[in-house]
Amino acid sequence: MVLSELAARLNCAEYKNWVKAGHCLLLLRGSLQGFVGREVLSFHRSLLAAAPGLGPRASCRGGSRCSPRARQFQPQCQVCAEWKREILSHHTNRNGDVHWGNCRPGLWPVDAWEVAKAFMPRGLADKRGPEECDAVALLSLINSCDHFIVDRKKVTEVIKCRNEIMHSSEMKVSSAWLRDFQMKIQNFLNEFRNIPEIVAVYSRIEQLLTSDWAVHIPEEDQRDGCEYEAGIYLSESQVNEIEMELLKEKLQEIYLQAEEQEVLPEETSTRLEMVKEFLRNNEDLRNSLTEEMQKLDSLHLQHQKRDSKEPSGEMPKERA
Ligand SMILES: [Zn+2]
């Protein structure tokens, strides 16, 4: 039953491309985690070497008053104020959005990762290290922090592709798009020639993208006889895991955009409807995403209720 649903989905070449593209992002994430973790520690050490006053002996005196919210942070103590200045001086996007709400400033003197999160997209407050982050969080850090010496255009090209994957309402991408994505990943990876673990991932990505990616769905009677070729064939449960990760990330994205009112409630309705339509035909995925869907539905319902109470005209703006 479940197998036949998966088989039917993968019969659609463009959906299969979408899942493949998502798999590339997961491989990319895996190859970046170790490197990013090490670099964040070294970045933190270099900050403390330049400004020893910000080290472990410094402590926030503002208490709960030094709490950032979304893009807003007005430090109430000197330590946090200096840290904020220091972070901004290394931020390549210092005049744009900085998601201070990701951070607990009181931990900046002792926790390198809390500093790293100031260079990342919103919604990462509860992530405690690179192993808990998705590809776009790590790519954004590399892009936004001047500790990383890279051609930033190559980073933003990959981020742009990632956003196209996540925002694809039908969860489909063309084969031409996938080839273009492969080229952009290659350009990005070439920036890390001296990091073997990052270079190594390219052959896996290339293999994945150029293969037909025959997902082996065993027939009932040949279940025992199937042979997997490492790296090319994935078992149905591996494919399912990739689909789930992708869909969760997509739902999270819809949630954050709705929460910050970056899109109109009608747009959220449309997006939700499309995902629901897709899940309607795919019980295997639907059952595993119940929690995420409920969270989205209730947020959306809240917005609709509130909007219907508002007098017509301008929407309330919560974000600063
Ligand atoms: Zn403080």
Automatic annotation (TrEMBL):
Domain of life: Eukaryota
Region Disordered, annotated ranges: 297-320
PANTHER family: RGD1565685 PROTEIN (PTHR35083:SF1)
Record-given protein name: Uncharacterized protein CXorf38 homolog
